[in-house]
Structures are given as structure tokens and as C-alpha cells.
Design a protein that fits this description.
320 residues, six-stranded mixed β-sheet, alpha+beta, 12 strands
Length: 320
């Protein structure tokens, strides 16, 4: 390679490494930064691709300092790809098995396909985001016979949301947000279980502060009662690489997908999953629960995969 070609390769590597370093630096600093960092953090595992490309450029340009830089970035990315949060077995005997399904149906477009999923998988509790008036009518008409208990925010567009349950529900105020986030307390075989649907605003440019505020409200909900068994489920518009989401988990909740082994399976956008995407749909549970299975399911008409998890409620508390 000519000297000029080597210099060009080194410049390309430096640009790639600089961009990746900004995102990784925010991850190290436990910060979501500013646009475009929050958006890129959702795809942090895939930053291995530009880092690997940068390393190829360093070898071509014989830039050995850059190669060290690239190897360091690869090591940090590999470290942060590991699942976040604590995992421990709950104490006490199993009290009830609960199958939980969460699905963002994208303005209600996925509602007909979700009915098929519900009939096939027979979940006990269903959290549905972006379920507007028609969506709610469809689900209540086509699947509601098996779910006599409901809690909803009845609204149009992305603001409507719905919880369907086989268990008796007592409605709560839910969590305030731009999009509907209803809540309830379920009576699961004599055990009170807090249910809360999550659907904060996404971290769009110019709306990152709003996204942070709404995730902080979900964190406040989780932290407000650490003694009652809790299920917090939905489209969080955040992955484990977002500091705001980790603060929700740090209240003591566990990610049920991680508990059951589906650690980094992407849920959005469905057209590129599982090859490329981000896991932004979650079922978080308090230490009262164990999880034995998690599956991400295709739902026609929506840009999210649904998440189905089997959890078991235990009488005792797990280790913190």
C-alpha cells in the first residue's frame, strides 16, 4: 500500500473508533448522553461491526497504536454485551405459575394477529401497548371471554393500552406518561401481585429528556413498594445498555428473559430481528418470581416481536 493509502486507512479507522468510543464512554460513565448516543446505545452489541472494520483499516494502514485502541474497544464491548442485573433463586415454595405476554401492536395494526397468538399460547396476563379503541374492541370481543378482568387507558393512536387478566384485578392510578400506562393489583391465588404496563416515550431527538422522565416514573413505581410481588412489563423503548433502564432494574427487579436464558434476543424492529435489532420489550419481575421460559414471537402487522414468559410466584423473597 502507498503511504497515502495507509494514511487514508488510518483516518478511516480513527473516525470509526472515535464514534464507537463516544458511545462506549457513555456506557462506562453510566450515562445516556445526548443525541445520537441514546439511539446508538440500543444497538451497542452491533458496534462490534464498525470496531472490527476499524481494526481491518489499522492493519491495512499499519497503524499499531490504532490497533491497540480497537482491541480495547472490542474488549469493552464484549464486557458490556454480558447481561445486566442480578440473578438469584427465590426462597419459599412455588405458589402459582403465571404465563405473561406483552406485545406492542403498533397503533392497533397487530391486534388481529395477536388474537391468534393469545388463543394459541393461552397467557394468564396480557399487556398490550399502542392498543387504541378498535384494538381494544377486537381483543375484548375475540379473546375477552377468557379474560374477564381488564384495565385500560382508552385512547387513540399510540396512547391506548390494555391489560387483560384471568385473575381478578383492582385498578390503580397507573404511571403518568405521554402514552397510556395502566396499572392494577391482581389476586393470584390469594396473593396480591402489582401489575404495571410500561410504555415510555422513545428517545427521539429532542425528546430524550421526556424519555428519561417517564422511565424515572417507572423506576419510582418499582421502588415505591418492594414487598409486594411485582410484574412490570411492556415496551420500555430502552435496553440494558441505557442507564435510565438500568436504574429501573436496580430497584431489585429482574429481567424474566434473562432469568430464562433469552438474554439479548432483539424484539424491535421485527423486520430485521433476530439478525439485527434491540431488546426493548421486557417483562421485569420482583425477586418473588422465578422464570422457566421466554420466547419472542412474531406478530403480523406490528414492528415489535411479542414476549411470552412463564414465571412462578414463590411465597418467600429471594436474596437481594
Amino acid at each position: 500500500m502507498t503511504k497515502q493509502g495507509g494514511r487514508f486507512a488510518s483516518w478511516c479507522a480513527g473516525l470509526l473508533f472515535a464514534g464507537v468510543s463516544v458511545v462506549v464512554g457513555c456506557r462506562i460513565a453510566d450515562s445516556d448522553g445526548i443525541t445520537p448516543v441514546p439511539q446508538l446505545l440500543a444497538f451497542l452489541p452491533w458496534l462490534l461491526v464498525p470496531t472490527g472494520l476499524g481494526l481491518a483499516f489499522t492493519l491495512r494502514g499499519r497503524w499499531w497504536t490504532g490497533a491497540v485502541w480497537g482491541v480495547a474497544l472490542l474488549g469493552l464491548l464484549a464486557w458490556y454485551i454480558e447481561p445486566y442485573g442480578r440473578v438469584s433463586a427465590p426462597a419459599g415454595r412455588a405458589a402459582a405459575g403465571i404465563r405473561v405476554l406483552t406485545s406492542n401492536v403498533q397503533f392497533g395494526r397487530g391486534a388481529p394477529a395477536l388474537v391468534t397468538v393469545i388463543r394459541r399460547e393461552r397467557p394468564d396476563i396480557v399487556f398490550v401497548e399502542e392498543c387504541e379503541y378498535t384494538c381494544q374492541s377486537t381483543l375484548e370481543r375475540e379473546a375477552g371471554g377468557n379474560y374477564p378482568y381488564r384495565q385500560a387507558v382508552r385512547a387513540g393512536g399510540s396512547e391506548g393500552s390494555l391489560i387483560l387478566s384471568r385473575y381478578a384485578l383492582r385498578g390503580t392510578a397507573g404511571v403518568r406518561g405521554t402514552m397510556g400506562m395502566p396499572g392494577a393489583v391482581a389476586d393470584v391465588r390469594g396473593h396480591a401481585v402489582r401489575l404495571q404496563l410500561a410504555h415510555p416515550m422513545p428517545p427521539l431527538p429532542g425528546q430524550v429528556a421526556l424519555w428519561h422522565r417517564e422511565l424515572a416514573r417507572l423506576r419510582a413505581f418499582a421502588a415505591a413498594d418492594r414487598t409486594t410481588p411485582t410484574v412490570l412489563a411492556g415496551d420500555f423503548n430502552a435496553s440494558q445498555d441505557h442507564a435510565a433502564f438500568r436504574r429501573v432494574i436496580d430497584t431489585g427487579l429482574r429481567d424474566a428473559a434473562r432469568l430464562s436464558g433469552a438474554e439479548r434476543d432483539p424484539s424491535w424492529p421485527s423486520r430485521t430481528t433476530p439478525v439485527l435489532g434491540a431488546q426493548i420489550d421486557h417483562v421485569l419481575v420482583s425477586p418473588d418470581f422465578s422464570a422457566t421460559g421466554a420466547r419472542f414471537l412474531a406478530v403480523a402487522g406490528t414492528d415489535h416481536r411479542a414476549l411470552l414468559v412463564d414465571v412462578t410466584l414463590h411465597d418467600g423473597r429471594g436474596a437481594h
